[in-house]
Design brief:
Oligomer: heterodimer
Order of helices and strands of chain B: EEEHEHEHEHHHEHEHE
Strand order of the largest sheet of chain A: 1-2-4-3-5-6-9-10
Shape of chain A: globular
CATH superfamily of the largest domain in chain B: Alpha/Beta hydrolase fold, catalytic domain
Distance between the termini of chain A: 21 Å
Number of helices of chain B: 8
Strand order of the largest sheet of chain B: 1-2-4-3-5-6-7-8-9
Shape of chain B: globular
CATH topology of the largest domain in chain A: Rossmann fold
Structural class of chain B: alpha/beta
Helix content of chain B: 25-40%
Largest sheet of chain B: 9 strands, mixed
CATH architecture of the largest domain in chain B: 3-Layer(aba) Sandwich
CATH superfamily of the largest domain in chain A: Alpha/Beta hydrolase fold, catalytic domain
Distance between the termini of chain B: 41 Å
CATH class of the largest domain in chain A: Alpha Beta
Largest interface: A-B, 35 and 37 residues
Largest sheet of chain A: 8 strands, mixed
CATH topology of the largest domain in chain B: Rossmann fold
């Protein structure tokens, strides 16, 4: 395991790079794009285990943090989806350099899935994108976060955190969402997925509902090869609400390995 | 981008290099400054809950203090331990490994432990065993209400809008289970074998006794203490000088500073209060690490008039 800082001097990103286990033949490279906020924290354990299992399966793996998140440089209020896309592109280049692989699989959960899709739809060196419960309506996502924070605030004996956050920053489940970030998230719509990608896209939805089929239809309309799978497996970003890293569902973990492969 | 007054290094250390951490070094260090070590809160990795530890580490390093935040064995990027040590002993061994690495590789000769919640509890346990630890910053350590605190909490809950609505709609939990108020005055120890609120329900008198012993020993060995209590634990700690009522038998000799922050949550997640916490920690560090000849061990006034601290 190699811990590294990479990227431009004024935008240093942190990553964990894993080389394939010596006992298996190298099979490829995978870039893991994290979600944001509380979902980042509670899914972190899943990403660590996913990286470990991918390594054991013969993959070079880079897991990284966007600017202003995790161990990367920057403040919590820095960054938006567009700049995270650029960070992910920087990470992808780093992974290619370190691994020597010319083609890469990308993986993401929630907002991380949206970032992974942007890579897949803009770069020819992404051959597979595995997207777990991607956000298909940014406005709906923000609305859900606000409602969850309101529920927490209603039960609290303190002055509501949301009310105190002001117009420029929303305080949502422990993280400040800047106006720039909010705007960039709210721009995420189904239309974004109608762009063509040469990568194969594998959608994984935790709950049956309209989002999966609608997203698949949008991707197919853009001419992108797409598979959709729905599972009742545990979701690491919902398992433990708001207080700590979620559990790791082994069946889902193994399924992710198969999909990335 | 503004000038960054610190630099960060990713480290591996400890047995078999299984532990991982980020050392944040000041661009200009203070001579003889203690190293701050952030102890994992719960099972959240080294960035800390809601990235609290990153914010603290960078701000404190910019003030001149080196800071290590690391993952305990089996958390974050650190490998699990291979031995059979129980959890509390394993955590102490990990903290010892962190301090030893800093002493050998970075010439650290004294340490201040800082932790939130379980990280605070483990910090206390570490300081009881390691004379190199000269100070503790304890954010929401595990304590319990006093009788006054119980009354305050009960009144607040009874007059809370959600409680009233739930009572009116006959859906409040209090209508569906027996009330247990008998243990409300007990103290829960912040020490080696505690996990969350479990101890509230178990032999609290013994835990209170041990908690008192722990804090008294820390004071006697001249450990400087800063305790922060947030609104996130207002069901347990809900008035400024509650610590005096909790531990009336202890003379703190001016070695304890209490920072009471009732308007923020357990992880001090909102920006204004996080900035306030960082200022308070910085002020405390400057006073706690100053030579004794400069006067009162922890000073006597807050630099920030918006802060309302309690010196004991």
């Amino acid at each position: 395991m190699i811990q590294l800082f990479f990227g431009a001097g004024d935008r240093q990103l942190f990553g964990i790079y894993r080389t394939p286990s010596p006992s298996v033949a190298p099979r490829g490279a995978a870039l893991l794009c994290p979600p944001w906020g509380q979902e980042y924290l509670v899914s972190h354990r899943f990403y660590v285990h996913l990286a470990n299992r991918l390594r054991e399966s013969g993959y070079h793996v880079l897991r990284f943090d966007y600017f202003g998140t995790g161990d990367s440089a920057g403040d919590r209020r820095d960054g938006d989806v567009d700049s995270w896309h650029q960070d992910a592109a920087t990470a992808l280049e780093e992974l290619r350099d370190m691994s020597g692989m010319s083609q890469v699989a990308v993986f993401g959960i929630r907002l991380g899935a949206c970032v992974a899709w942007r890579l897949a739809s803009t770069r020819p060196d992404v051959h597979t994108a595995v997207l777990w419960d991607p956000i298909v309506s940014g406005a709906g996502y923000v609305k859900d976060l606000v409602e969850t924070q309101q529920t927490i605030d209603r039960a609290s004996l303190m002055e509501p955190l949301l009310r105190r956050s002001g117009p420029e920053v929303l305080q949502l489940l422990g993280f400040p969402m800047s106006k720039a970030l909010r705007t960039s998230i709210e721009r995420i719509r189904l239309d974004e997925f109608r762009k063509h990608s040469a990568a194969q896209v594998k959608l994984f939805f935790s709950l049956a509902g309209p989002d999966g089929p609608a997203l698949q239809a949008a991707l197919l309309a853009g001419g992108t090869a797409t598979l959709l799978e729905t599972s009742r497996g545990e979701t690491p970003w919902r398992e433990d609400e708001y207080t700590g890293p979620g559990s790791v569902s082994l069946p889902v973990l193994e399924r992710m390995i198969e999909m990335i492969s | 981008m503004s000038h960054v007054a610190f630099r960060e290094r990713a480290l591996r250390f400890g047995p078999d290099d299984r532990l991982t951490g980020i050392l944040t070094l000041p661009e200009t260090g203070l001579p003889g400054a203690p190293h701050l070590v952030l102890v994992s809160a719960g099972i959240v990795h080294r960035v800390g809950p809601d990235r609290l530890y990153v914010d603290l580490a960078r701000a404190v390093a910019a003030m001149g203090y080196p800071v290590l935040r690391f993952d305990l064995s089996g958390l974050g990027y650190s490998q699990p331990a291979t031995g059979t040590l129980p959890l509390d002993e394993l955590v102490l061994a990990d903290i010892d490994a962190a301090c030893t690495m800093l002493a050998k590789s970075y010439q650290a000769n004294s340490f201040i432990m800082c932790g939130l919640c379980s990280g605070a509890n483990f910090s206390i346990a570490a300081a009881l065993h390691d004379p190199r630890i000269t100070g503790l910053i304890l954010i929401d350590p595990t304590v319990a209400r006093t009788r006054k605190g119980s009354l305050i909490h009960l009144l607040r809950r009874l007059t809370h809008q959600k409680t009233l609505i739930d009572l009116l709609l006959l859906r409040h939990p209090i209508l569906h289970r027996p009330i247990d108020v008998g243990r409300s005055s007990e103290v829960v120890e912040a020490g080696s074998d505690l996990v969350g609120g479990r101890a509230l329900l178990e032999i609290p008198k013994e835990l209170r006794r041990r908690f008192s012993i722990s804090i008294r020993k820390l004071i006697d060995q001249n450990t400087r203490l800063m305790m922060v209590f947030t609104g996130g634990v207002n069901h347990v700690y809900n008035y400024r000088n509650q610590i005096s009522d909790l531990l009336p038998e202890i003379d703190f000799h001016g070695r304890l500073q209490v920072e009471y922050m009732p308007n923020t949550d357990h992880t001090v997640s909102d920006v204004p209060n996080r900035e306030r916490l960082i200022r308070a920690v910085g002020d405390w560090l400057n006073r706690a690490s100053a030579p004794p000849s400069t006067g009162h061990p922890l000073g006597s006034t807050a630099a920030d008039p918006a802060r309302r601290e309690l010196l004991l």
